[in-house]
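Protocol step 4 of 5: obtain the predicted structure for the target chain.
Materials: sequence only (see below). No template structures provided, no constraints applied. The aim of this step is simply to have a reference model before the mutagenesis design in step 5. Sequence pasted as it appears in the construct record:
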Amino acid sequence: MSSLQSSISRSLRPQSSKATSVGSRSGRSSAYGKDFQQHLADYNVHVNNWRSKALNATEMQSELAHERASLSPSQFSDSDFEEFRRKNEDPALESEVITSVPPILCGNSSIHNQQNVLFTELEPITNSGAIQPKPDFFDGACLGDLDQNIRNNEGILSAAIPTKHPNVPVVPNFFLEVQGPDGNASVAQRQACYDGAYGTRAIHALQNYKETEPIYDGNAYTYSSTYYAGTGTLQLYAHHVTAPATVNERPQYHMTQIDGWQMTGNINSFRRGATVFRNARDSAQRYRNHFIQAANAKATQAMPSVQENLNDSTPHNSREDAAYTTLQGADDALQQKLASKTKTKTKTKTKPKQYLLM
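Step 4 output (structure tokens):
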């Protein structure tokens, strides 16, 4: 077994007897309680770990700060902001907030996304007793974007294709978790951490496709965010993976806060938060596309063309080639000789008598 296969195997199987177990039969909020945070830590999934910062954090901050024309005063007015406030304050249920708030945060975008989908097909990132992820909102690629050989690869299937439905986004690496007016911001953070770890593993599986040794570059390629309607607060996080601390351990999954914004306070605060949110979605899409294209290229290179297969299936011995060339030359000479005799006979053939008609 290669080092990469061994690493993946460790990340997919239950680990230690000390690890806590969080049952999936609990209600969704209770399943993400304080015990769940310890459960994540036991399996090397770290909630808002400031001690481990992604190597591309500075570059990421700069990229996410770029202004967007869609949020300029001419495109997003005071009346638009007041409408957002109403949609934040009016809902009584979390499900209503999920329906009304994300479309305004996202703006006009064609990024493939889905809401409230249970990830049924992924290997547990902790243990089989843990609740399955069910993000309120997430972005991913279309299934058809992946080469067929990649879609059929067991390592990719178990890490990057969340459901059996062909229209649900795959390789998800941007998530939003929402809590309603009476919700719990800490629960949203744990949910986002859990989502982000799965997203990070999905990207990492693509990054390591066809590699013999696991790559841990220390960069973040996955984002998660939380929105708490009770205070109108938006938080954004980056996620990255680092190598196991020891040979027999699992990889370490890290979540680090990028920033936070009070979205209902004033329009300028909203613009800053929405700008970074939209830029993060675009950034996640670029990362996702990059690793998909790189993996597709590896899959294509691994498949020889039909002509290459034909050439490989009909090898020639050098002596056979020489004999074939000699015979072919003799045959050509014989054909030329026969053609020459035919021409000579045609030239010496007696001409028919001609009669002059009077």
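Step 4 remarks: Residues 3-301 form one domain. Residues 5-21, 305-327, 341-358 have pLDDT under 50 and may be disordered.
Proceed to step 5.
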